[in-house]
Amino acid sequence: MRALVRALPMLIRAVVSLAGDPGLPRGAKIALGAAALYLASPIDLIPDFIPVLGYLDDLLLAAVLLDGLLNFTDRALVLRYWPGNPATLDTVARVAHLLAAWVPRRVKERIFSPRRT
Description:
Blueprint (H helix, E strand, L loop, with lengths): L1 H5 L1 H12 L6 H15 L15 H17 L2 H7 L4 H14 L5 H8 L5
């Protein structure tokens, strides 16, 4: 968890840059946009003024988004925008995967993997 917090500035920079890349699947771009709107919105499923639980929905949404981006998209594409070293990215990917384990793998694959034609 500490690694995730330390990597937050790198994550934000990478995700913003990655969102503009034409190689990122359309579903992933839509998920990024929807998550950004939800995280920026003052309206939450669990109000932020409730201690600990208030930020739980934001944390879980961010974990699902990161897990999808880091574990189900092309690694070379993500590394192109990652400002840190690959070992840090691997650590962040493992933590996000643990936090997002409650979302079925097939859902994340459907959103974040490129469409097969």
